[in-house]
Structure formats: C-alpha cells, structure tokens
Amino acid sequence: MQKLINLLRYLVNMRVTENEVIPVVDDTHGTERLKSADGRQVVIAYPSLRQTGETSNSYQDQLPAAIFVLEKAMAGQRTDKDELEQYLSMLATVDMILKTLRADTLGYNACPRLAGMTIKVANTVPVYKVFGSWVGWMIEIEF
C-alpha cells in the first residue's frame, strides 16, 4: 500500500507544464475539474494497486496509472493538418514526462518516492474528446 501512496504523491507533484497536474478519479471527475481550464493540461488518473501471489511472501505489486496530456479540441473550421499539428505539439510534453519518469526510477538519482519501482510497461495512445472536449495523448503506464 505504501508504494501506491508514494506513487500518487509523486504524480500529483510532477511539474512538466506551467499548470499544476490535475488528479482525477474518473471521467466525470475529470470533466468537472477541466471545465474552466485552458491551455495544455496534464491530468493523472489516480493509480491503482493490484497484488498477485499466493502468500504474503510472494505478493507482487502492480501499479497501473494513466497520465493524460490534453488540449481543448479545436473548434470551427479545422483542417486535418491543424489537428495533426495539435497532436504532434503535445508529444514534446509526453516525451518530457516519460524521460522524467525513467530518470526518477533509475540509478543513483532516483526519486525516493519511487524507491523499489520500475516502469514495466508504457504505452502512448492518442485520445479524442475525453473529459468532455479535450484531445491529446494518454500514457498508460505500469510500475
């Protein structure tokens, strides 16, 4: 359970844009939190904890989380090129998040909150009209 607490505290305090990270529980919560937001937003879905193993001595923790890099969907007369450029521009933020997570889970300079955690899987997936009218990328990550 301590790893879940540490991961949530780490993610909520991550700084990769001028805006603070927005933590949410589900789609409804995210829509409410983003309704008056503007600009590029980083939203984290609260991570969960899954334990596997037959005995307490063999438990293995799996900590899946989702991190969203989002902007409001373009309104009006947008072209395919405009939409593509919007998605491409957000990939720099996605890359920064992934580099930060890798650096903070590896080596001597690892973040103490992420002690004992490694990134098992990281998938970057485009999303459209999540949390109402937001588009961008979702990083599905498991520690």
TrEMBL record:
<protein>
    <submittedName>
        <fullName>Uncharacterized protein</fullName>
    </submittedName>
</protein>
